[in-house]
Amino acid sequence: MGSSSVISPEDVLESLMNDGTIDALRLKIINQLKANEELKSTTIKMAEQSRVLNTPGAEKQTKRELFDALRQELEAQVLEKASKSVWELILDNNGMGKEINQTVERVFCKLSGREPPLFPPQDAKEVVNANPIANAKGKANGKGKAKGKGKEKEKEKEVAREHEEEKSNSKKRSFSELNALAEVDGEPPVGLEQQVEAKPEEPPVAMAEDPQV
């Protein structure tokens, strides 16, 4: 069967039946049912409490007659409990269920020309699923850090602005204080322009002439 053809469940089942895999799996399930002490104990109790064995005159019947009567009375109940136990075995991912899944997958891959496993192990899925979460957390942390840095820069700018305002206010206070002192001394207030401008140079003093010359 080519790899391009579609493989159906019937194709897989036919292959399992032809190579004897189904019979081998069935035998394993039967042996595990026989070893199921809980199922065995429940069946014995049901037989002991049955109407057939507790009817007067039952001891006079043959084993064959008793067996047929018990089967008619308990067959449905026993089969229901046995069926439940079989499904528990089939769905057990750590026992028969795991073996059945691996067998079916192996046959499907063989028929379709694919390489097993078709599905990644559970651990690999958890790692793949965890990566997007980790990436999302990393992005969120990065955004948080960027916001934090932005806030720090704004704080620094605000502190620098306050510092400049403080210096400016300090200069204004010093000029005001100088003007106040000048008024007290009876001098006109000194303006900012007058403080900055340089004083004019005084003309040189003429030297007195020596009378002896």
TrEMBL record:
- Protein name, per record: Uncharacterized protein
Task: Tell me the superkingdom of the source.
Answer: Eukaryota
Annotated region Disordered: the residues are: 130-213
Composition bias type Basic and acidic residues, residue spans: 149-169
